[in-house]
Every structure is written in C-alpha cells, then in structure tokens.
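Form 7-S
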Amino acid sequence: MTEDLFEQYYAEKLWETIPSIYRHEDGLAEKPGVLRAVVQVLAKQAAILRRSQDSLWYDQFIDLCNEWAVPYIGELLATRLLSAKNKRGRRIDVAKTIYYRRRKVTPRVLEELIFDISGWEGKMIEQFQKLVRARHGLDADPETLAGRYSGTLPGGWADLRNRHTGELTNGPFEEYFHTPDVRRHRGLNGRYAIPKLAFYLYRLQVYEAIGVTPFPFGDGLRYTFDPSGRDIPLFSQSRRSEDWDKWRSAAEAELPAPIPCRLLGNAEYLITESAVQRLIALPASLSPAAAAALRKLVNLNFKNESSLTNIILSFPAAVSAEILNPVVLLPLFAFTLTDECGKSILLPDAQTLLSNPLDETSIVVGFDMPANSVITAENISAASLEPWPTILNRDLLIDAERGRFMFDTAPVAGQEIFIAYHYGFSGNTGAGTYERPWISDIIPDIIKGGEAH
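Output:
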C-alpha cells in the first residue's frame, strides 16, 4: 500500500492551530512532548477518517471495494455468497453474477467457475458424450478415426495396440467410450451417466524460467533444462484470456500440466494454396511439376509427419526427391503446421521474437552468439532421451518428460545456449522463479554518498 502521509499532514496541521506559547511550554515541561503525543493520537484518528471518506467512492465497485462491502453489493444482486474464507472466490462470484446469469446452464460458465472459485485451471466434460451405444447392423463398418492421437474407433471400439490413447484414460481428453453407470458416484464408480458432469482440476502452479544456463553432459550435445542436472518434467502454460468474451475451452497443450512426449510430438499438417505459393517464392524454388503435385494435396489434413511423407513418396521419383530435400521439406512442415496441434502450441515458429519468448510458446532453445537465433518447430522433434540416441533426425531433440535436450551438431565456439521453459510446483515455497516483492521492500535505498538509509 502506498504511504499517504495523512498522519503527518494532520499532525502538523493540528500542531499549528495550537498557540505557540503552549507548544513552547510543552518542550520545557517536566515530561516534554505530552501535548505533541496527544496531537499525534488525534492526527491518527483524523487520518483513519480521511481514508474512510476517500474509500466511499471505491466501495461502490466490487473490484475496488473493501472486504466489508462485498456482502452488501452481493445482496443488491441477490447473489448466494460463497464462504467468507474464500475471499478471492467471493469477490469474483459477485463481480460476475450478471455475467453468469446471462450464460447460465452452459458448459462455458461451468468451466469458468473452476478457475473463478478455486483459482485452479480445469476442464469440464459432459459425461453423456462419453457413453457408448450398441452398433446397429445397418451401421457402416468402423474405421480408425483420423483424430489427433488416433486409435479409437467410432462407437468406442478401442485400438488396444495404441499406447497413446491409453495414456489419456480417465482424463478429460480420453478417447475411450463407456457403458452407462447408474451407481452412486464414489471414486471411479458412477462417473459415466447421462446427468453427470466431470470436473478435472490442475492444481499445480506453473513458473517460467528464462535465461537459465542448461546443465551440460560434457560433449556439447546433451543437456538438461534444469541447471542442477536433474531430470524434471517440463510444463505447458495456461493460455486463459483475461477477456471474458474471448473465453474458449482449453486444449490439452493449453493447460498447466506436465508435457508428455506424445503431446510435444503431436504435429498435424494442412496443405493450402498459400503454403504452396510460399514454397515457390523460396530461394530453392519448387519446380512446376513439384508444385502441381503438392496442389493435389490442398485442403487435405495429415495427422503426423509420417503420413505426409508417405504421400509424398507416392509421387514420381524425381518429384518426391525434390520435395523431400530438407531445403524444401522443412519449410513445408513450417508453412503447413496447424495452429491447434500440440507441437504448434508448445514450440516456437519462425515468427517468434526473442523479446518475449514464452508469450506464445512453452519451450524455447536457441543461441546468443554470434547472432540471436531460435531453433523453430520444424527443426525440433520430440523423443525419449533415455537412453541417449546416436542418430538424430532433426537439429534438436527434446524429451519433455525428463527435461532433456540434445543437439545434432555441437554449438560452435562463441555460441552460448539460452533456454526458456516452464516447470510446475505446488506454490511459492523454497527456491523458484516466482516474484518476491517483500525482499525489494526491505532492501535499503542506496544514495550517491554510499550510505544507506
């Protein structure tokens, strides 16, 4: 709180109203300063009254008012107040009462309530969407969905050979479907039924680490993100908008949680005419035959790099060799990567600036010298670095589950590595990158003469 100096102001003002003879005698009395002390008491009460008067205007607004005014504003709106122990949730609940009523009984409001009341990020799922139905004889034969992590068949037929879908089980993004469970809800029992709503909470806080020196393993290729050399999971950051009208349900890569290798490697590609035109404009321009072949794929979505490269391999040999050349293939990956996939959300693209590397991405690796450069998504691949591989298919491999990364080629002399990432912890305890304003408050000011005051 900024010091308003009201006590000093009123003390001097009251002191000046007292005749000078009494002020003089107060300094010569057997117990000097008694009159001044009385004035100080009166000045303190005058300062309290002045602050109360000044705050009357602010007490009309829920975001500025004192705590005592929150129930009164809530009463005006006929709000059912939360517990007084949850001061933050109570204030937000009153502030957004009208907002909630305009959008009542919608998944949007229910999901927003998770953060507004608890302060944690969360995801709400309507469980009726996860219920399976018996297939009819006239139904088409089930086929594997071309989904994001794909493996579950329509109607809930599970591909048990796909371990990626198994990782999502019992979470908000699981692909499996369930038979209705009408039992009373206890633990995992009774979760999947028509009237049920499931709330998934992400209780860990995410902290950013920028400009950290990675821990080297001595060969110039292998590093850990943590400067102490520990294996720690990297976290994705929350992307909740402060603007209520821009709210949308978060994707998996937009929630504060450990990043699995599956999510970091989730790359989807959409060939567009603009992407073909950008490839033609490159210094290594596409031939007309290669451009014509890529135009056959316009508006087709590919769920991973393998499916896209397999299609390219089906072209005539000369055309496929030209497109699969790294000087063309890597820009193709960069221009066609969709915005919704995990790799696009978590890693920087060619447009990312170094000024705020974590504004749009969760993981950044680059070099300081001789010129600032960020290794972008098309040059990065997700991998398990336990054990460390001997052959790399990209300039950089990242193991987000262990917090490791590995270069294909060691940095040259004079190049300093800089990294930026997020890690998770339960709160502002111990060593960490969270702000500590109370420390700056107790540091004495340094004046030119070298003396502190």
